[in-house]
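Exercise: predict the fold of this chain.
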Amino acid sequence: MSSFAKFLADRVESYIALRRSLGYAFTKSAAILRALARYVADEDLDGPFTQDLAVSFVLSWDGTANGRAIRHGVVRRFCDYLAIHDGRTEALDPRTFPRSRAIPPPHILTDEELGSLMSACRHVSPEYPERSAMLTVFVGLLASTGLRSGEARRLDRADVDLVEGVLHIRKTKFRKERLVPIHTTTLAALRRYARHRDTVFPVPRDSAFFLTSRGNRLSSAGLSSAFGAACRLAGLDGVRPHDLRHRFAVNRLAAWHRDRADVQACLPLLATYLGHSRYSDTAYYITGTAELLGMAAERAFADGDVA
């Protein structure tokens, strides 16, 4: 390892410690910076840190354009810190990897599409029935509550009140905790899953409510793989777990509209339930068109779609 690689690795760790001391979780950014330190060591690069070095590192990652822009942004902010310790460090141009601000249009699943997806979840892994059972209830929970997938993955057993039917959402986006009441049919499905889970894993290996077939907490990559497999079985292209959140929000607004409620007045209620930090994030859902609106997502449970 070159002296510059050693110097850079030390500065990376001190920068990570500094950001975390300020209250930031700094998990993904830390992984990017440690990957940078490994890249410099593996390539036996010498200092100082330059724009060309940063570009080479970012381009060595086979990812999306926005992903590269994010990585470059992390490295650019780190270079501001690095320059304090090495005055030769070049300032990085923030325009090197422009980030696209285009928002992909949501896919508001119809009742038929949601039913196909739930059915596919039950058959996604015949060799691992625990995986299918977990995925079916997990997807049903997203559809019936509009939770973010990360919020559902991070649920611990203590966060799920199976008596009162309330979820305690912690460690969420913007670090806002909230209580989420759930429909009685959703509660019944969660109770059935909990009984099945405790039969399969009588001695818990993890505090998570949703467990994989190995008894561990469901990871982001694991969810992506399982959900993608279910979508392929259901013949659904381009559907993301977050689209279930979109479906819930649009259908809730549609139900209020059918009940002749003042939708504008109801938006703060929906914003609180969904955990939005800005009113505009919830108002966005008013753009949902009538032909995309179906029955409320809770019907996924009420009609017996969730085993």
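Check your answer against the key: The longest helix spans residues 65-85.
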